Amino acid sequence: MRRRLVPAALLLPFALLLTACGGNSAADSSTDIDGKGSLILNVADQKGGSEAILRAAGELKNLDYRIKWSTFTSGPPLLEAVNAKAVDIGGVGNTPPVFAAGAGSKITAVAAFKGTSKGDAILVPSDSKLTRPEQLKGRSIAVAQGSSANYQLVASLKKVGLSLSDVQVKYLQPADALAAFSAGKVDAWAVWDPYTSQVLLSKQGRILTTGDGITNGLTFQVAAPDALRDKKKAAAIKDYLERLRRATAWVHDHQEEWAEVWAKDTGLPYEVALASVRRTNATRISVAVDKPLIASEQEIADTFTELKLIPEKVDFGDFVDERYNGDLPPSTTTARASEG
Predict the structure, then answer these.
(1) Which one of 56, 114, 279, 311 counts the least CB within 10 Å of its CB?
(2) Are residues 229 and 185 in the same domain?
(3) What is the residue range of the signal peptide feature (predicted)?
(4) What are phi and psi of 71, to 5 degrees?
(5) DSSP secondary structure code for residue 298 in this structure
(6) Which of these, 203, 284, 213, 209, lies nearest to 251 by C-alpha position?
């Protein structure tokens, strides 16, 4: 993957510059195939995502169907591929499904994972005089438009009686935001892990506030409705989700091992990967796609509708399928404790 020119102390792989939360980059490639049999499950992924974790946890063995992997650099184009029936299922953060729903895309959220939001942070430079979020009034803040960080910024400001109109929002994708932040051209940066871990470990900045207790900490597996109507593919999706849930649980007890795999797969420094795993990744648990979850995502949708970033009201409940919930805990269950 190509790298963008940013300060060496804060260099991150291009694959992570748009991962999961924002951006508009398209698919990378479709190269890896696992399993055997005549049925092919087309799975959309992001670098260091589902394929890497399943492989590390040993969950790609004994497949009686084939998985064809397609790698995307961010959630929005991944969901475009789901909508276009180019892939059957893929993993994204909590915000891309809301925007896809707002665009009328044919997508269905079929599984959810919940973690802490301590890695979702508003960062300030190490020498900043800001010590409380309410001091952000009138200040410039970089954030990726339509990202989970965008919502976290709105929610964090609201908690202290501020709104987006009270600050100077600079809508920048992570590569540009990173450069602006390190050059002192913005007063703060709303972003997610592993950027949070990278900035903290490089001592370029510190946390002003996090999304913990403010945002829902959800990630999703989103499927194409046509795949769900196909009995054989629906069964393969069920098996795939069960494997992914076991792999997600595996991370909690194998944090150093997963950090090594993740660092190798993405190009992240091991120390950054491990810090991000401890603060964010290892906290995730599988939860049911239920009414409280729908209500939480609806709140995000309504927020972006009010900001006119989504053209009209979205009923998120129309874009979920609860058939794979099984005996999973409710979405209100507390995520695993963070070590970060």
Answers:
(1) 311
(2) no
(3) 1-26
(4) -100, 130
(5) H
(6) 284
Q: Is residue 335 part of a domain?
A: no
Tell me, yes or no, whether 110 and 145 share the same domain: no
Q: pLDDT tens digits for 155-177? A: 999 999 999 999 999 999 888 99
Query: Is pLDDT of 310 > 50?
Result: yes
Quick one: average pLDDT of 97-103?
A: 93
First-to-last C-alpha distance (Å) of the chain: 28
- Looking at the 3D structure of the chain, how many domains does it have? 2
CATH number of residue 221's parent domain: 3.40.190.10
**In this structure, are 111 and 223 located in the same domain?**
yes
Take residue 134 and report the two structure tokens written for it: 């309410």
How does pLDDT run across 199-209, given as a tens digit for each residue? 999 999 999 99
Output the pLDDT for position 134.
Answer: 96
Last residue of one domain, picked from the residues 210, 230, 250: 210
Q: Mark 246-261 as b/e (b = at least 16 C-beta within 10 Å).
A: ebbbbbbebbeebbbb
Residue 106: closest CA among 26, 221, 225, 219: 225
* pLDDT score at 3: 28
Is 1 inside any structural domain?
no
pLDDT at 14: 36
Does the residue 327 lie in any domain?
Answer: no
Domain that holds residue 288: 8-116+216-319
Decide if 225 is inside a domain: yes
Helix (H) or strand (E) holding 272: helix 270-279
